Q: What sequence folds into this?
């Protein structure tokens, strides 16, 4: 177990190294940092001097090592726009994004299992056909369109839900304000969460359905029936546990992807999270903030995947984590 | 009253463009504690018979007509809920491949306890006690530890023993064993069969043993059904069927046994293949492969009729029997 953990941590470090290298390398192609810092009224001589002072004339490797060294100490550069450490800016925005992802995850987990199981058990029922049909529509429509349509219908036409922002949030600690502790917060987070879930939910329903149908054909399900086990137990204990093993793996990757999808959702709903912040940073050519965002998102991706793999090992008795460490 | 009484049982499979008949008017009886063998080639309908007896045919298969009386009650007419109280409780099944029969994510203990709890009001601890007793009966070493183990931690032979223990958990009246040793090593096969025989005899459990191995049938069972293309073509006491088979197909099966061939000789196989379910010929289904077939055989289906001590479905059984007797006396 420990050996496996160490192995996974090393793999994670390797991935982070690659991400940081890519993030750092694109920095140079996003415009001249000096223009952002000093504007246009400074003479060429002073610019050269500043370049030297900032180390911009050093070789790529020297610059990268400096960047990586700073990054390891939690310094991902200073945002040009906010004039604050980029990491601080992101961490302030992070809770809003994570809450949005959490809201969407709750919807996905809460609905995909019952819907997937139902459509697998009753593949020919009318309701199953409707669910499968709607899921195709959900997958096909891009998130931003779903989001705009939802605002149009539920905010503009009916006025049931607010169309933007986080509304009234409750302070928890540090920079974490939560939506989940006030009615107004719930009202605000609902539409964005649904929009964010609109692609992943159908994907999971279909995935669970396909896996479940295969598992229901297996010998051990037939055997459970031959033992006189009740259908409810066969579906939810015998079949579902086997169904969810591959779903967990896919789910880990998708949670990471969802963090990336928040860019669209947050922009449409003016959600003050890091996705929205990232789009603003791109518009302002706030290079350090862009790079810091890439690295933080990459970090979230790597961490969730590592955790999911560990969970998989714990859930699946045929995976021996101790042996896999060797 | 017999334990099991099957009358005119027909099973069909609804395929996309046609409905094929997999079991064609099967009738047989099984007395309490009796051991019956069902033999035949792959596709003859042996396993389908087993699953039909449990009312466990999965789509597209279904029981088309006939009755299966188990202790006087017709299983075919039973609701799913009624049927569930019989499955695993009064009638248990042993599957073919122990490597895929047990659920990989549940422990042995969970899979045993749930079976007991499905049929009796027992606490987990009580159920585990019964499980341990049964595991001991099938000679599983340190059964207490096994309860916490997952199937993949055990060998195939061990798993099949556990499946036999599960079959015995609720002291059933009938065990249906569908080729219980085909997936196992030859060395373990004999052990498992011996164990099954011993337990059936000591607990007075009826056994239906589905197999293609005539040797196993002769050791394990008292009566035998020989199946071909979804029909019973010969039925009777195992000893008579093995020693003096009447149907040309049964004779072919016995002659094909390696024991019947001298070293260096080619095995005597039955020429041709069994017809597919969608292409069963009119007349005797075995006629195209039968060296004794006459015109009559190709046009009229032979009924299963009593002939001496056995029942045979062959028009020419008389003539064949006489020729054989002459050959022997000559």
A:
């Amino acid at each position: 177990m420990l050996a496996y953990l160490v192995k996974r941590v090393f793999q994670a470090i390797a991935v982070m190294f690659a991400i940081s290298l890519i993030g750092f390398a694109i920095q140079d192609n996003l415009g001249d940092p000096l223009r952002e810092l000093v504007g246009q009224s400074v003479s060429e001589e002073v610019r050269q001097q500043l370049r030297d002072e900032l180390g911009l004339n050093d070789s790529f490797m020297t610059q990268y090592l400096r960047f990586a060294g700073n990054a390891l100490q939690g310094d991902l550069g200073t945002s040009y726009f906010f004039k604050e450490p980029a990491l601080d800016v992101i961490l302030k925005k992070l809770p809003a994004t994570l809450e949005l992802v959490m809201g969407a995850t709750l919807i996905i987990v809460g609905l995909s299992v019952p819907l997937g199981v139902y459509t697998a058990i009753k593949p020919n029922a009318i309701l199953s056909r409707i669910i499968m049909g709607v899921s195709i529509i959900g997958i096909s429509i891009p998130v931003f369109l779903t989001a705009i349509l939802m605002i149009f219908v539920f905010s503009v036409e009916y006025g049931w839900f607010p169309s933007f922002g986080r509304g009234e949030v409750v302070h928890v600690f540090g920079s974490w304000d939560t939506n989940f502790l006030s009615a107004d917060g719930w009202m605000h987070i609902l539409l964005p969460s649904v929009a964010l879930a609109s692609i992943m939910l159908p994907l999971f329903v279909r995935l669970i359905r396909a896996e479940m149908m295969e598992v229901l054909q297996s010998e051990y399900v037939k055997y459970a029936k031959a033992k006189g086990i009740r259908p409810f137990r066969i579906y939810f204990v015998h079949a579902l546990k086997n169904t969810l093993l591959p779903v967990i793996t896919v789910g880990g990757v998708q949670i990471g992807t969802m963090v990336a999808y928040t860019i669209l959702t947050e922009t449409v709903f003016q959600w003050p999270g890091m996705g929205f912040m990232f789009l603003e940073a791109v518009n302002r050519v706030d290079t350090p903030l862009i790079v810091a965002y890439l690295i933080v998102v990459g970090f979230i991706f790597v961490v969730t995947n590592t955790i999911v793999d560990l969970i998989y090992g714990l859930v699946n008795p045929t995976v021996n984590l101790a042996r896999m460490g060797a | 009253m017999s334990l099991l009484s099957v009358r005119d049982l027909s099973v069909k499979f609804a395929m996309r463009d046609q409905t094929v008949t997999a079991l064609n008017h099967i009738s047989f009886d099984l007395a309490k504690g009796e051991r019956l063998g069902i033999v035949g080639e792959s596709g003859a309908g042996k396993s389908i018979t087993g699953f039909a007896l449990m009312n466990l045919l999965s789509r597209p298969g279904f029981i088309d007509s006939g009755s299966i009386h188990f202790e006087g009650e017709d299983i075919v007419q039973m609701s799913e809920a009624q049927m569930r109280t019989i499955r695993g409780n009064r009638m248990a099944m042993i599957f073919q491949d122990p490597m895929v029969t047990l659920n990989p994510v549940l422990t042995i203990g969970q899979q045993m306890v749930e079976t007991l709890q499905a049929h009796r009001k027992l606490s987990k601890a009580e159920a585990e006690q019964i499980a341990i007793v049964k595991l001991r009966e099938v000679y599983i070493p340190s059964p207490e530890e096994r309860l916490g183990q997952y199937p993949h931690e055990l060998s195939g032979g061990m798993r099949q023993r556990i499946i036999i223990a599960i079959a015995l958990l609720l002291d059933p009246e009938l065990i249906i064993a569908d080729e219980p040793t085909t997936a196992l090593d030859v060395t373990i096969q004999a052990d498992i069969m011996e164990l099954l025989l011993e337990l059936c005899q000591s607990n007075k459990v009826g056994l239906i043993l589905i197999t293609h191995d005539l040797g196993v049938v002769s050791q394990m069972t008292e009566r035998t059904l020989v199946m071909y293309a979804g029909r019973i073509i010969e039925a009777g006491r195992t000893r008579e069927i093995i020693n003096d088979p009447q149907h040309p197909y049964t004779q072919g099966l016995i002659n094909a046994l390696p024991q019947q061939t001298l070293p260096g000789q080619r095995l005597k196989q039955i020429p041709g293949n069994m017809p597919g379910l969608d292409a069963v010929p009119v007349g005797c289904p075995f006629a195209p492969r039968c060296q004794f077939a006459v015109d009559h055989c190709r046009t009229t289906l032979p009924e299963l009729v009593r002939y001496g001590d056995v029942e045979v479905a062959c028009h020419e059984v008389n003539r064949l029997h006489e020729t054989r007797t002459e050959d022997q006396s000559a």
The first strand of chain A starts at residue 170 and ends at 173. Chain A touches chain B at residues 218-220, 222-230, 233, 237-238, 241-242, 245, 315-318 (CB under 8 Å).
